[in-house]
Amino acid sequence: MPRYFVRETFFRPDAEFGRETSTIPARVHNGLQLLLGRSGGRSVFIPIRSMQYLAVAEPDEIVFVDAQGGYAHQDGEGGRLIRLAWRPAVGRESLTAPVPCEMVYYFGGLQGVQSRLLADIGPVLRQMLERQRDDGMPARSGRILPFRRPR
Q: Within 10 A of 64 (CB to CB), how many other CB atoms are there?
């Protein structure tokens, strides 16, 4: 499958609306790290179609933009507004433990969206990882060996 790169512009609003500490499931964090590792540490776009949101994962932060709105212009350049961000803690005790994460809200009324993102991103990550694995695997060939009876 050919690879290509897309340049997108995202604007972080000047002021935060709120901030809270929470956790993200280990499988979500592990999936994000695996995707980032496979991309060479660059940004990875994760479309969450069920919500019309786009997650942009980077090594130290995952930002979320609403694909249905929130567009801004600044200095002659246009781009989408970041709605909220996850900032996972660095280091953890176990690969299976939930990861402490700071949730940063740039607009009000996003607690429901936040909960839904936590639920919907896992299946999307799993599908992306499976697709990458299947695309990168060589074709398998089988061999049939004759069965020899013990003497």
A: 23
What's 55-78 look like in SS3? EEEECCEEEEEECCCCEEEECCEE
Give the type of residue at 91: G
CA–CA separation, 45 and 69 (whole Å):
17
Pairing of the two strands 18-24 and 99-105: antiparallel
Backbone angles phi, psi at 144, to 5 degrees: -110, 120
- Structure tokens belonging to residue 10: 């995202």
pTM flag (> 0.85): no
Helix (H, G, I), strand (E, B) or coil at 133: helix
| 37-76 pLDDT, tens digit each | 888 767 899 999 999 999 999 989 999 999 888 788 888 8
The token pair at 6 is 């897309």
In the three-class reduction of DSSP (H, G, I as helix; E, B as strand; rest coil), residue 17 is classed as coil
Sequence spans of domains, the chain: 10-132
Average pLDDT, the chain: 85
> Within the chain, where are the H helices?
26-38, 111-136
d(CA 148, CA 83): 66
